[in-house]
């Protein structure tokens, strides 16, 4: 079984956030610079939302708003789903599928410690399955004893 803490260890501790009072243009520039799809939105040290490319597309671009004059807090998704480092990858996949979301904040003792994406979860699940297959192959062929 794979846990969120293993994903965070593999992908590193980089955590990209943006202040709620920054412009959408600022957020888009950070997304592009870091080659990521979402930012956690902060009000000082408090997690208050998530901003994604989807938020921009649906709430700014399609409505003809200006990204230079629209603040992140005006269009961010307020409801942020989160998990702990001790949650399983399978549990994360179920939550993401059920809620139709692509990102989960990772909280530990009420402190933001990371964020994982659907891509991170799928990659971890594939790696776990590949490992299990290799172990079964070794068992069947009698090698690796």
Verbal overview:
It contains 6 helices and 6 strands; from the N terminus they run αβαββααβαββα. With 145 residues, it is an alpha/beta fold. The protein has one domain (4-141): CBS-domain, CATH 3.10.580.10. Helix 5 (89-99) links the parallel strand 4 and strand 5. Helix 5 packs across helix 6 (118-141). The longest helix has 24 residues, at 118-141.
- Are there runs of 5+ residues with pLDDT below 50, and where? none
CATH class call:
Alpha Beta
List the total number of helices. 6
Indicate the percent of residues in helices.
Answer: 40-55%
Brief descriptors of the model:
elongated, 46% helix, alpha/beta, CBS-domain, 3-stranded mixed sheet, 145 residues
Brief synopsis:
This protein has helices spanning 4-11, 24-34, 53-61, 72-75, 89-99, 118-141; strands at residues 17-19, 38-43, 46-52, 82-83, 103-108, 111-117. It has one domain: Roll (CBS-domain), CATH 3.10.580. It is built from six helices and six strands.
């Amino acid at each position: 079984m794979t846990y969120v803490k293993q994903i965070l260890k593999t992908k590193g501790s980089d955590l990209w956030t943006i202040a709620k009072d920054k412009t959408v243009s600022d957020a888009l520039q950070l997304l592009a610079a870091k080659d990521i799809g979402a930012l956690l939105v902060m009000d000082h040290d408090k997690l208050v939302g998530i901003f994604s490319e989807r938020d921009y597309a649906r709430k700014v671009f399609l409505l003809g708003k200006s990204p230079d004059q629209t603040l992140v807090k005006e269009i961010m998704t307020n409801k942020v789903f989160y998990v702990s480092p001790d949650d399983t990858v399978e549990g994360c996949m179920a939550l993401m599928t059920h809620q139709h979301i692509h990102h989960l904040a990772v909280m530990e003792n009420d402190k933001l410690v990371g964020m994982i994406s659907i891509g991170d979860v799928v990659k971890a699940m594939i790696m776990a399955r590949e490992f299990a297959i290799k172990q079964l192959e070794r068992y069947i062929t009698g090698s690796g004893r």
